[in-house]
Specification:
Helices cover 39% and strands 9% of the residues. The protein is mainly α. A two-stranded antiparallel sheet has the order 1-2. The protein is globular, with a radius of gyration of 16 Å. 31% of the residues are buried.
Length: 176
């Protein structure tokens, strides 16, 4: 059953919440890493050459941001990930289908794989599940779940996210 999408710059915590995954559950962490590895494999095979870039970014030096790729190339990578999905990830990817548009679950994962490559996440190579949380929600809070920054029962939570249009981090209020 499809679920409502999150914006690509949403935190990992919001992404996991939308997919009803618990960041403290080892099985859920495992499937997240599996989704991420599937996206990394396609990134490495389809998005590492200049022909994948928009014409105006063909002279840019790698690593490239997600918004530098052509929409067709990025959507083709999403389709490849979905076609090659393992049985464990296919179930979660099914939640991301939304009509004729690209799968939002895979799009989010692939977008974040690009983020980890473009220098905004210094801990990208670590195997710690929460290492990319600093990027997504400030210092250690967003991926930790209930009780993280904002507190239990808080109606709003402050999140920092990278805004590609502004080429920098911005603070946003996320209603809970």
């Amino acid at each position: 059953m499809p679920s409502q999408s999150v914006i690509m710059s949403a935190s990992k915590w919001e992404f996991l919440l939308r997919l009803e995954l618990d960041s403290k559950n080892a099985d859920h962490q495992s499937v997240y890493w599996l989704m991420k590895n599937e996206a990394i494999n396609v990134y490495n095979s389809q998005l590492r050459n200049r022909s994948a870039l928009r014409r105006e970014h063909r002279d840019a030096e790698p690593p490239w941001t997600a918004n530098q790729f052509t929409e067709d190339t990025f959507n083709a990578a999403i389709a490849t990930i979905e076609a090659q999905a393992s049985p464990r990830t296919r179930v979660l990817y099914a939640r991301g289908r939304n009509g004729n548009g690209p799968n939002w679950v895979i799009r989010w994962i692939l977008y974040h794989v690009c983020r980890y490559r473009d220098g905004r996440n210094r801990k990208a190579q670590s195997r710690n599940f929460h290492d990319d949380d600093e990027l997504d929600g400030g210092s250690g809070g967003a991926g930790a779940g209930a009780g993280a920054a904002g507190g239990v029962g808080s109606s709003k939570k402050t999140n920092a996210f990278y805004d590609t249009a502004r080429n920098g981090y911005v603070q946003a209020q996320v209603a809970r």
